[in-house]
Write a structure and sequence with these properties.
The strands form two sheets. Strands 3, 4, 5, 6, 7, 8, 9 and 10 form an eight-stranded mixed beta sheet that branches. This protein is α+β, with helices and mostly antiparallel strands. It has helices spanning about 75-90, 155-170; strands at about 20-25, 30, 35-45, 50-55, 65, 65-70, 90-95, 100-105, 110-125, 135-140. β3 (about 35-45) and β4 (about 50-55) form a beta hairpin. It has two helices and ten strands.
Amino acid sequence: MKPFDFCPACSARLGKGDDEGSKCPSCGRSWYRNSAPTAGCAIVVDGRALITQRAREPEKGRFDVPGGFLGPGEQVLDGLRREVQEELGVEIDVTIDDCVSMVAHTYGDEGDYVLALGFLARLRSGEPTAADDVAALAWISLDDIDDVDFAWEHDRELVRKALTAVERKGS
């Protein structure tokens, strides 16, 4: 799969390319198939993490963490805060030091590449409510984590890491 059929710079038809990208035969620019960045978080309160049930495809009905795709040029924490506000209607406290996972994976039926950045976050204000592309919310503990139908295994591991980190700090 190539990133584009036509060169974004000069509009020439691009060749077949490969999994990494294509070079324009007309202007010589290279176009790469890069991972789209996402940011998600495990919001932890009283030893439980908030997870969200997906209201849309891909993986509709399965669970993941609050978050989503970053906009072009959007700073990762700004994007994460925006996504959490859109999906849950709450504000979170999170810093770059709260990053607990970075995983590249495929997303959806098209096989698009994603770089998922995962954070441990704390609830600053508001009461979480399902909105935007969230069908339902659930609070889970470490004891529950293996029984949840997660859309992506890296989200299960993000929640596990976040809950374990909070548990270690508490003792």
